[in-house]
Design goal:
mainly alpha
């Protein structure tokens, strides 16, 4: 699954997740946990309530992932979008398409997260 994470991260936002393999593995475990929690709720037709400890844990992990992706987006804006010298060198990836479309920052985070989860689950 590590290769999956690396490929999806590179395609989505030009991010090389292999630079920190411990964090990469933690992210992989977090995604698998999220899929298990949500999958169980769907399969057993269980509601998603905030007082459920597994849901609170999932939301905390999702907030962490949003933080990491937010940093990637901010770095992209500083490195390419807000810099005339490198503006033409921005990678042509999903993040570029989302930013070009005018999506608000929260929607960009949610779209990237969905793609990451879906790509991880289907490979």
């Amino acid at each position: 699954h590590l290769i999956t994470i690396r490929v999806i991260a590179q395609i989505c936002c030009g991010y090389d997740s292999s630079v920190d393999t411990a964090y990469e593995r933690e992210g992989m475990v977090d995604i698998a946990f999220g899929q298990q929690v949500v999958g169980n709720r769907i399969f057993f037709k269980m509601p998603i309530f905030n007082f459920d400890p597994s849901i609170r844990k999932l939301r905390k992990k999702l907030d962490t992932m949003y933080g990491v992706l937010g940093d990637v987006i901010n770095k992209r804006n500083v490195t390419y979008r807000n810099n005339d010298a490198t503006k033409d060198k921005e990678p042509d990836d999903i993040l570029k398409a989302l930013l070009d479309s005018g999506c608000d920052p929260q929607e960009v985070l949610e779209q990237l997260t969905t793609i990451l989860f879906a790509g991880f689950e289907t490979t």
